[in-house]
Design goal:
The protein is mostly beta strands. It has no helices and eleven strands. The strands form two sheets. Strands 2, 4, 5, 6, 9, 10 and 11 form a seven-stranded mixed sheet that branches. It has a four-stranded antiparallel sheet with strand order 1-3-8-7, with no helix packed on it. Strand 7 (67-72) and strand 8 (77-82) form a beta hairpin.
Length: 119
């Protein structure tokens, strides 16, 4: 199974920065696109940012220009640099990986990390 472990969440003041990391182990699976979702209380998870195996990225409109997703396939780490954080960025952040093996494909998720933006 692919394992994804997030770290880097915490409490930050508005306007501040945080960097989330997601360490992953492929364990024989091929990892294709990866990304981050976030979940607000009582809401569905929504896409924040994604990066495919070619390095192409996409972002939710609400985070464009503030967040940057990156991927290091040597260190097996997915990162999300979050700058100019706003109250509305408070959520649980989940990393995911679209994985495939022997014709089967699915999405694997990390356990989530809390980001709280508060003064």
């Amino acid at each position: 199974q692919v394992q994804l472990v997030e770290s880097g969440g915490g409490l930050v003041q508005p306007g501040g920065s945080l960097r989330l990391s997601c360490a992953y182990s492929a364990n024989g699976w091929s990892i294709n696109a990866m990304g981050w979702h976030r979940q607000f209380p009582g809401k569905e998870r929504v896409l924040v940012a994604a990066i495919n195996s070619g390095g192409n990225t996409k972002y939710a409109d609400s985070v464009k220009g503030r967040f940057t997703i990156s991927r290091d396939n040597v260190k097996n780490t997915l990162s999300l640099q979050m700058n100019i954080l706003e109250f509305e960025d408070t959520a649980v952040y989940y990393c995911y990986a679209d994985i495939s093996n022997d014709g089967w494909s699915r999405r694997a998720w990390g356990q989530g990390t809390q980001v709280t933006v508060s003064s």
